[in-house]
TrEMBL record:
Short sequence motif DGA/G: positions: 159-161
PNPLA domain span: 5-172
UniProt keyword annotation of Lipoprotein present: no
UniProt keyword annotations, A-Z: Hydrolase, Lipid degradation, Lipid metabolism
Name recorded for this polypeptide: Patatin family protein
């Protein structure tokens, strides 16, 4: 039996996930594998590097730095989250990513991206945490029209949430029998069609398959939520979600708001910690 951790995206709703995983790491909870989508990838990778507190620390430190996130960066580089700063300067120098611990940790860490040419999901196991793996994580979090496509292998890659926002079925398909799922929306949430689709159709006109995937994303997402509820009732999944909407945007420049959502995640993680331990045979 393999135990997995699945982390949804949601931009700065990912501060909730950061709070939950810090509590799990502090308690010594381990998984055979983890998979992250978008913010779940770029924040969740710290589980494998065992860097408790790193996500909230660097986000609060640099959320007001235009090199980190700004519309100036978007206009200048094509990335609202600055590629050079976020994926080079920050992990290499300012708040170093522990590549050695990451590589030595036997836990697999997968990310989900979307192939911009086909609109299909691409799943990648980031084994080393090196510069190439960081680019796979970046690709998973590259929001359509707000980020450039990331060229890796033979792919042009975009935000993984477009094709597979909550990759429960993928993890089950590769042998993860029991999974802890961290969602960033509360119980009862129903995704609606993207209100920016008219603009996205114009900006992404060269990528019709990606547009089609964006048009139907809400249907796939809601169907996956229904499947998650079914598996949760059967005891195959343990789901951790906020009790109420987090009310935080994709870009948040106020450190206190990041801290607020992070603390909500910590409280939920602490509340569910005993259940998580019981869910894992190794803790019996």
């Amino acid at each position: 039996m393999k135990i997995g951790l699945i982390m949804e995206g949601g931009a700065m709703r990912g501060m909730f996930t950061a709070g939950v995983i810090d509590v799990l790491m502090e308690a010594g909870v381990s998984f055979d594998g983890a998979i992250g989508v978008s913010a779940g990838a770029v924040f969740g990778c710290n589980y494998k590097s065992r860097q408790i507190g790193r996500v909230i620390r660097y986000n609060k430190a640099y959320c007001q730095d235009p090199r980190y996130v700004s519309f100036r960066s978007l206009l200048k580089t094509g990335d609202i989250y600055g590629e050079q700063f976020c994926y080079h300067e920050l992990p290499d120098r300012l708040d170093p990513f522990d590549v050695k611990t990451y590589a030595e940790n036997p836990m697999n860490f997968y990310v989900v991206c979307t192939d911009a040419d086909t609109g299909k999901a691409v799943y990648h196991n980031c084994l080393k945490g090196d510069a190439e793996d960081i680019q796979w994580m970046r690709a998973s979090a590259s929001m359509p029209a707000l980020s450039r496509f990331v060229k890796l292998d033979s792919y042009s890659l975009s935000d993984g949430g477009t094709a597979d926002s909550i990759p429960v079925r993928f993890f089950e398909s590769i042998g993860y029998d029991r999974n802890v799922v961290i969602l960033t929306q509360p119980e009862g949430y129903v995704k609606k069609p993207n209100q920016l689709l008219p603009l996205l159709r114009i900006l992404l006109w060269k990528n019709p398959a990606l547009i089609h995937a964006l048009e139907n994303r809400h249907e796939r997402y809601n169907e996956t939520l229904a499947y998650i509820r079914e598996q949760e009732r059967s005891g195959n999944l343990l789901v951790i979600r906020p009790e109420a909407p987090l009310n935080i945007g994709a870009v948040e420049r106020h450190p206190e708001e990041l801290e607020r959502v992070y603390q909500i995640g910590r409280k939920e993680g602490e509340k569910r910690l005993r259940e998580v331990k019981k869910f894992q045979p190794s803790f019996f």
